[in-house]
TrEMBL record:
Gene3D superfamilies: TerB-like. This is Tellurite resistance protein TerB. It comes from Rheinheimera muenzenbergensis. The lineage of its organism: Bacteria, Pseudomonadati, Pseudomonadota, Gammaproteobacteria, Chromatiales. InterPro entries: TerB-like.
């Protein structure tokens, strides 16, 4: 069973993936991810800033290698700790800029219909 901290780290990685997947990084999406990070009860060994920086690099590599689903599958167990919050967070980021990019929608649908079921 995943812990709250593992969930927090996975949620942060999911949030970063959601705003970076379409290749268009908008300020409001970045601000929303920062708000999500600020709201996490962080108890990790590494600082939230360090985890966030590492996640940005991991997400960028997963997108470049076309291994987004595999990357998210690696987060599944931790995200299942609170799958409703994970899905709500993904949806919130997807809708934050007033338009749903196709890649964001596909990723959200994958989460909702296949990964977090």
């Amino acid at each position: 069973m995943a812990t709250q901290q593992l969930f927090n780290e996975a949620l942060l990685k999911l949030a970063i993936m959601m705003y970076r997947i379409d290749g268009k990084i908008r300020l409001n999406e970045q601000e929303l991810v920062d708000l999500i990070a600020d709201d996490l009860a962080w108890e990790g060994v590494n600082s939230i800033t360090a985890v966030q920086s590492q996640a940005v690099a991991e997400v960028r590599d997963a997108i470049r290698a076309d291994k987004v689903e595999a990357y998210l599958a690696g987060l599944k167990d931790a995200l299942m700790f609170d799958k409703k919050k994970a899905l709500d967070t993904a949806r919130q980021i997807m809708q934050s800029d007033g338009e749903e990019a196709q890649k964001e929608r596909r990723l959200y649908d994958y989460l909702r219909q296949q990964l977090l079921v």
